[in-house]
TrEMBL record:
NCBIfam families: PRK06179.1. GO terms for molecular function: oxidoreductase activity. This is Short-chain dehydrogenase/reductase. Residues 7-198 form the Ketoreductase domain. Keywords: Oxidoreductase. Belongs to the short-chain dehydrogenases/reductases (SDR) family. SUPFAM superfamilies: NAD(P)-binding Rossmann-fold domains (SSF51735). SMART domains: PKS_KR. InterPro entries: KR_dom (IPR057326), NAD(P)-bd_dom_sf (IPR036291), SDR_fam (IPR002347), SDR_oxidoreductase (IPR051911).
Length: 271
């Protein structure tokens, strides 16, 4: 994609963390960047910030309309907005599970559906969906979050096949642990059970340790830029050393060995 003529990028969840760093990287690369956050935020470093709630279709449509009013086109959509949930799967009500999917999956579909008519009319476009290494491996005590990311992967791959004839490509970026405040804003289970208290506490500590030792958000931003600008994009891009290693292990190691390694990593009994 040629960014010399100020191609327009829209990135959701750009208030902080991976989203903000990615927005800055895209702006530096020559894109005219619009970022979104749930609450109004001041524009910064040449990035135009807009208020958008990805769980609200009217809010999404208004945001896309505002981008088109100001810029006239959308060449790149980065679906980054998302929330986490750590706890035993049994500890979340179906209402809490629906709320998680409403952001992490249906938020992506709302924004994508709002942008697609413009991209089709242009005859080109690129959609980058931020998934996770937990989109292709099991994730004990992150089961519902992993389910949303597995769903994003299936949605994205299928949608890519539907849109190629319109000149639009859909690709995935899969980060591992990243040094952001993501773990500090995790949703807590809405029906916690005492039987899970000890191991849940251990998983929270393990996640904090992983995040502290994780990749810088710039690693993910660089991967997004690569996925956005590749003339012939790959289906997925792992972001960072850890995610790349996990992808390799999942693909080539025997299933029993992967299962054992997963339990060891998560400090669970080998049974």
């Amino acid at each position: 994609m040629n960014t010399k003529h100020h191609a327009v990028a829209l990135i959701t969840g750009a208030y902080s963390g991976i989203g903000l760093v990615t927005a800055k990287a895209l702006q530096k690369a020559g894109y005219r960047v619009f970022g979104t956050s749930r609450k109004a935020a001041a524009s910064v470093d040449g990035i135009t910030m807009l208020s958008c709630d990805v769980t609200d279709e009217a809010s999404v449509n208004n945001t896309v309309a505002e981008v088109l009013k100001q810029a006239g086109r959308i060449d790149l959509l980065v679906n980054n907005a998302g929330v986490g949930l750590l706890g035993g799967a049994e500890e979340s009500s179906t209402a809490q599970a629906r709320a998680l999917f409403d952001v992490n999956l249906f938020g992506i579909t709302r924004v994508t559906n709002a942008v697609l008519p413009t991209m089709r009319n242009q005859g080109k476009g690129r959609i980058v969906n931020i998934s996770s290494a937990l989109g292709f491996i099991p994730a004990p005590y992150n089961a519902l979050y992993a389910a949303t990311k597995h769903a994003v992967e299936g949605y994205s791959e299928s949608l890519d096949h539907e849109l190629r004839s319109f000149g639009i490509r859909v690709v995935l970026v899969e980060p591992g642990y990243t040094r952001t405040a993501f773990e500090s804003s995790l949703t807590k289970p809405d029906q916690p059970l005492a039987v899970y208290d000890s191991v849940r506490t251990g998983m929270e500590a393990l996640m904090r340790k992983g995040v502290n030792a994780g990749d810088a958000p710039e690693v993910v931003a660089d991967t997004v830029l690569k996925a956005a600008t590749a003339e012939v994009p790959k289906r997925r891009y792992t972001a960072g050393k850890q995610a790349t290693q996990v992808r390799f292990l999942r693909r080539f190691l025997p299933e029993a060995l992967v299962d054992r390694s997963l339990r060891q990593f998560n400090q669970l009994p080998i049974v």
